């Protein structure tokens, strides 16, 4: 029997936005994904199953064959940085900007390493390297906005939605690094080996996006 097509979904807000899309495509989990300790779920299609993972785990699961495809934010994909993954569909969900931010009116030190508080260490390193600067990364997973305020970092790199949290903590956005939206991500291997199942999903998702953004 052929292994089911395994679809990795990210927990949290993106999962809440993704499930209605799958439902519109006729894909329904056979039990509720919320409040369960399970991580793998069957669907009404025997040939498709779902994994529910931390957002940062979606790219490695897809790349390493734990899942054939998944949905992840562009910010997560940039940080992971694999050339073994392709992004055939921009779902245009969870839109935000990946930016630097500093205390209002502050400037970077003119010499030496830049202290950067972020969970996007690879993105930050590449961004400042393009400016000829090296960084001293401080890896944080929350409360990024406090780091410059308490003197722990010169700058942060984080996703920005409205910017209200930055302003509330005395920071201001500076450099735009990238725009981020949710993407369908597929391993290049699976695109070849499971093409017959994956291509119809790609076409259906593209049609869904087109319908949502029709004039």
Structural features, described:
With 215 residues, this protein is of the alpha/beta class. It has two domains: 5-94 and 181-212, D-Maltodextrin-Binding Protein, domain 2; 96-178, Periplasmic binding protein-like II (D-Maltodextrin-Binding Protein, domain 2), CATH 3.40.190.10. Helices cover 31% and strands 31% of the residues. The chain contains eight helices and eleven strands. It has helices at 13-24, 58-63, 74-80, 121-129, 146-149, 164-168, 188-193, 195-212; strands at 5-10, 40-42, 48-53, 69-73, 85-90, 96-103, 114-118, 135-139, 155-160, 171-180, 182-187. The strands form two sheets. The protein has a six-stranded mixed beta sheet. A five-stranded mixed beta sheet has the order 8-7-9-6-10. β7 (114-118), α4 (121-129) and β8 (135-139) form a beta-alpha-beta unit. The longest helix has 18 residues, at 195-212. The N and C termini lie far apart (44 Å).
If classified by CATH, what would the architecture of the largest domain be?
3-Layer(aba) Sandwich
Tally of individual domains = 2
Q: What percent of residues adopt helix (DSSP H or I)? A: 25-40%
CATH topology of the largest domain: D-Maltodextrin-Binding Protein, domain 2
Low-pLDDT parts are: none
CATH class of the largest domain, anyone?
Alpha Beta
How much strand content do the residues show? 25-35%
Helix/strand/pairing category: alpha/beta
Care to count the β-strands?
A: 11
What does the largest sheet look like?
A: 6 strands, mixed
Overall body shape: elongated
Q: Provide the succession of SSEs.
A: EHEEHEHEEEHEHEHEEHH
Tally of alpha and pi helices:
8
CATH homology superfamily name of the largest domain: Periplasmic binding protein-like II
Question: What strand order characterises the main sheet?
Answer: 2-3-1-4-11-5
């Amino acid at each position: 029997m052929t292994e089911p097509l395994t679809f990795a979904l990210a927990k949290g807000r993106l999962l809440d936005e993704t499930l209605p899309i799958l439902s519109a495509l006729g894909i329904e989990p056979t039990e509720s994904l919320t409040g369960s300790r399970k991580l793998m779920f069957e669907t009404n299609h025997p040939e498709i199953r779902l994994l529910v993972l931390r957002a940062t785990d979606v790219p490695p699961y897809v790349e390493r064959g734990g899942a054939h495809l998944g949905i992840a934010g562009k910010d997560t994909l940039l940080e992971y940085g694999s050339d073994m993954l392709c992004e055939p569909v921009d779902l245009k969900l969870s839109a935000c900007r990946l930016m630097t931010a500093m205390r209002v009116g502050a400037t970077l030190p003119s010499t030496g390493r830049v202290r950067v508080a972020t969970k996007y260490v690879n993105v930050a390193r590449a961004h400042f390297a393009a400016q000829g600067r090296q960084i001293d990364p401080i890896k944080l997973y929350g409360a990024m906005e406090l780091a410059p305020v308490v003197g722990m970092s010169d700058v942060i790199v984080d996703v920005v939605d409205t910017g209200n949290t930055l302003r509330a903590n005395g920071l201001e956005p500076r450099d735009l690094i990238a725009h981020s939206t949710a993407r369908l991500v597929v391993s290049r291997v699976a695109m070849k080996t499971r093409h017959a199942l994956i291509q119809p999903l790609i076409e259906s998702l593209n049609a869904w996006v087109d319908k949502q953004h029709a004039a």
